[in-house]
Structures are given as structure tokens and as C-alpha cells.
Amino acid sequence: MYRIYYTILLCSVFCGAQNNNSQYKNIKVQNVVLILADDQGAHLSSLGVKGISTPNVDQLASEGVLFNNAFAAVASCSPSRSSIMTGMYPHANGHWRNTITPSLKDAESEFGRDSKKVDKVGIHEYIKTLPELFLEHGFYTGITQKFHMSPPWKFPYDVKDPVNNEPKQYTKFVNNFIKQADGKPFFLQANISAPHRNFEHHVGKFPEFLPNPNSIQVPKYLPDTPEMRQDLMKYYGSVQIADACAGAIIKALKDKGIYDNTLIIYTSDQGEPYHRAKASAYFAGLHVPLVIAGPKVLKNKLNTSLVSLIDLMPTILDFVGIKNPETVQGKSLMPLLEGKNNDYAARNYVFGEHNSHGPDRDEHYPSRMVFDGRYYYIQNLMHDKSYKLPADLKEEKSWGNHSYNATLHAEFSHPIQFNLLKILESGRSSEELYDMKVDEGQTNNLIQDKNYLSKLKELRTAMSNWRLSSGDVADDPLLIKTRLKK
Length: 486
Hints:
Helices cover about 25% and strands about 15% of the residues. The chain is of the alpha/beta class. The longest helix has 30 residues, at about 225-255.
């Protein structure tokens, strides 16, 4: 089984949250809770990953459907979250890189059109977001941990709370949020800060979640050294904290008697925070875990379909009975969840992209990928351009990242992994092709191997057709149209 990278989404339906003064007293109330981990790869004990324990998400998987071929549209926080909230690819919705946004601690005025914390990059004004649609349909809405979507007025929430990585605080918040909803249907985007770097922010407070560094599984693209294992130990510990927070949210739903009537989706905005993963179009950056459980959903099922996180918005809207905007590029997964496979047009390919992690021109490195379930093809659209790794993927002092130097220190003991890092910074070819069945770490580029010429032509054609049909007309991210002005 391929390693799966995952974020968390929770959709819930509940009947019975009634209030004598509520206009919703005698109707079925449908709720959606989005639990979204930050930078968590597909590291779950239920997926067979060694050295990690994720009992809460594992339990969720046993009560629903686990997708092992789910992919984020992009491996950077802001554009990934906006792609989920619009059901669109970043190049199509206009939000192609990380952006400056208000903090959830800021005054409400900072989320309006007169805010001074608004980036020039963000989704187009004409696009309907999931929070906007829920607001229009009378849902009570909330968001936790961080905002990180642009422009802020396109993502209206009734409640904003910075709770981030403490399980008990999530239970308290969800209990209060349900009470505040007062019988109205609600949408909660429950973001969790773990396992985003700096890992010390998580495990420093909860050291009991740290695993044994000798028991963990080191990704193939990273050198297996004691120094790297120490960094991965903190990452795995942070994943386990995210699992505990998810469990706390689920517990709150159970405490309120609405768990059995709740559609739950668990995923992450992107893969793990390591070079050649986050802020790239490689497998480890885009491949995420996805678990969905709830009413009418099959139980304890593994689904191998190629799915994208842009499918979450149409799935949620399908579930609550709200019509999809015409701008949505994803497709509802409800037929797969209900076992109605004949009603689902399966993908032959899944697509993803990277444009830039931040605004710095040196970080711009546009790439596109297509995956058919075995072969993974990447086009580096400006491969000759200089590239600088984002700070959180290399700096020890500010971000606590020890993996970059650990790889440099492994130049002679692990030359393959060392060279992968150096190629990442300077020397990538215009095209890359990998056989994921035998090369999970994407260490052997097959682009020059004539034995794969037929597959290469097929994936080139698929890529070309997708770029044309999805409106991907710019190789340089600076040419992507930004949102309309205020």
C-alpha cells in the first residue's frame, strides 16, 4: 500500500439538537465539521506505518471508508485550503501561493474589505466559497487555529477561535460551539496546528506523545540516520497529538448525542513538512489520507479510487443538499461512500500543482503532476529558473528543522538522498517520471528510459488535456490572474 498523506475533515448530520425557541425545532439538522490537520502526511497506524499510534482516526476508518489514493491539489497551506473551500485548482481560482491574512485573534474589522491585512493574491470575487454558501443557507459557521485564506471576506465565519493543539480545549470549544448554534445547522472548519513545524510547539507541551525513534519508519527520500530519526520522532509525536485532538472533537459530538448521525471526513491540507514533500509537486507533498464515515456510508472499507481534495466541497454540498456552483471542478464522492459505484465516473488520473510557497520570486518553481495509480509524471514548467527552499524546510533556529542539515550530513552514508536534495535546489529536469510500485521514494527518474516511452506519451497527453480544460494557461505563476480588487 502506498504511503498516504492526510488531513482531517468532518461532516456531521445531527437530528435532535432542538431548542424550544428555534425555528429549526421540527426539521432534521445537517451539520458539517471540517477537521483539517496541518502538514500531516499519510502516517496512520491503520495504514501500517511503523512506530506511530493514531487510535482515534483508526477507529474512524473502521467505521467508514478509507481512501488510499487521495491527493491535495497543491502542497502549500493557503492555496490548498482555498482549493478545498472552492472545489477548484489554485491556478483556476486565483489563489496560487501562501498569502498574508488576518489572525483569528484579530478584530472582526480585519476580515472586511477595509482590512490592512489583505494580500494581492486570492480567489476571484465571482467564485462562491463553501462558507459563503453555508451562510446563505442559514448555517452557523466557525473556524479554529488559523485563517490563512484570501481574501478574508470571501470566507465568512460566525465564530473564530485560535484553539490549536490541545485536546481538552477542542472538546470544550466544540461543546460551546454546538450550544451557540442553538439548533441551527452548523459548519465548523476545525483546523489543528499539529504537525506543522516547529514541532517543539507541540511535543514540548505534550512529550508523552513522543514515539521511540528506533521504531519509526523513515521515508525513502530521506536518509535513515539517528539525526533524521530524532527529527521524525518529533514529527510523528506531533501527528499523534493531531490524532488526540481529532478524538477530542469526536468525543464532543458523542457527548452531545450526535455522533451516530454525523458524516465525518478526516484529511490534511498537504503532506509532511520535509524537503521534496511540502511546497513541491512530489508524491510525499500531495498524497494525503482521507477517511469518511457517517450515515449510509459503508463501514470498514478501503477505496482505491483516485480522488482529490477538490472533491470535498461537492461531496459536502451533495450531503447537505445544496447545489454545486458551476465553478466547482471536483466531483462528489457520495456514490462511493454509499456503495453506488455505478453512479460514479471514476478518474483515470489525478492532478496536482505547485507554483510558489511564498511571494519571494526565488521560491517560484511552477510544476504540474499527473498520477494514474502507478506512474507519477511531473512537468517542471520553468525548470531552468533558480529556486530557493522555503525557510521552514531548512532553517533550524526559527523553524526547528533538523532534517535539512541531517541530509547534508549524510552525503557519504546516503548519497542518493543527499543528491535528491541538491537536485531539488538546482538541477531538476523539465520532466520526471516514476514507477510508484517499485520506487515509493521517487529516487529513480525514468524520463530517459525508452521502455517507458508509451506511458510517457500517455501522461503528457493527459497533462496537456487537463491544463487546457481546467484553464491552466500560464507557466509563470506571475501571469496567473489574481482576484478582483476590493
